[in-house]
Amino acid sequence: MPVSIQNIPSTEQLRDSRPKINANFDALKAASDAQESAITSKANTADVNVALSQKSPVGHTHGISEIANLQENLDAKAPSSHTHSIANVSGLQAALDGKRPLVDDVTAQTTTTRTLAATDAGDLIRCNNGSAIAVTVPTNTTVPFAIGTEIALSQQGAGQVTVVAASGVTINTPITGVAVKTRVQHSVIGIKKVDTDTWLALGDLATS
To answer: What's the CA gap between 144 and 1, in Å, rounded?
Structure first.
């Protein structure tokens, strides 16, 4: 079949279209280079698998020995369920010593003399003897009762109970010139410490 020479570009047409062809080629090459660079910059599957193999699963566990210093720190802790003696709690015994019992003791006194002791703080001492009973209040140096301490004394027998102040101790009483003593059988009197060596007498005191 004969070819029509009308469809063949002329030399001038080919020369004029060359810049356009070159531009298209350059554009295609730039796009190809960009695509190759993008592919090259992607992580290699093998490298990704290696990196993943060095990681732990999100849900995993550790033994105590696998955590640095954990066992040492646990050994230095007390069990969550444990007890302490009073001596293990700093200052507890001293705090308890400064408290009165919830229920005051009742102490029996059957002899005719008694010197108050630290354990008498807050107590009721029931004195029972047919003869007079003398109860001595010691100095603060001898027995350091806390200020505010109260001690009660009752006369259960025929013997009258007299409170005697040791040398250096003052017992203030509302009845001038009369010793601090019970009025009759079953009278209850008390003393309350108001200063270092000063006490206040109160209760059913004798008036003569």
So the answer is: 139
Residue position matching structure tokens 């060596």: 197
Strands 198-203 and 161-165: unpaired
Mean pLDDT of the chain: 86
Task: Determine contact, residues 196/205, Cβ cutoff 8 Å.
Answer: no
Q: Where are the beta strands (DSSP E) in 110-149?
A: 113-115, 124-127, 133-137
Phi then psi dihedrals of residue 161, to 5 deg: -100, 125
8 Å CB contact between 142 and 169: no
Global confidence as pTM: 0.55
How far apart CA 172 and CA 198 sit, in angstroms, is: 7
- Is 130's pLDDT higher than 90? yes
Fold held by 93-203: Jelly Rolls (2.60.120)
Express each pLDDT in 74-106 by its tens digit: 888 888 888 888 888 998 888 887 776 665 789
For CATH 2.60.120, the residue range(s) in the chain are 93-203
Cα–Cα separations (whole angstroms), residue 100 to 16, 122, 145, 188: 118, 7, 11, 20
pLDDT at 7 over 90: no
